[in-house]
């Protein structure tokens, strides 16, 4: 049983990691199940041949852009047929968004006014 788990983890580690940019992180954290077309072309290029299932979404900071978020963000997700969902609890979503400088409560007020 342990060997099968290790093999699954190894396969996921190498083939199911999707590199995302900061804009993709914001979309994934502000929408429950964003359609693939809402994410960058780079993400679409990475996932178009993948089967549905678990994925790892990974953001790496660009040291040449010090005004952007300068820490790595790794999220667990699910790739569906036409969308990607990040499995992040609500409180953690708000924390990540605040770290990125997104005014969370301002966005929530707009949403509530609808």
Automatic annotation (TrEMBL):
**What name has this protein been given in UniProt?**
tRNA (Cytosine(34)-C(5))-methyltransferase
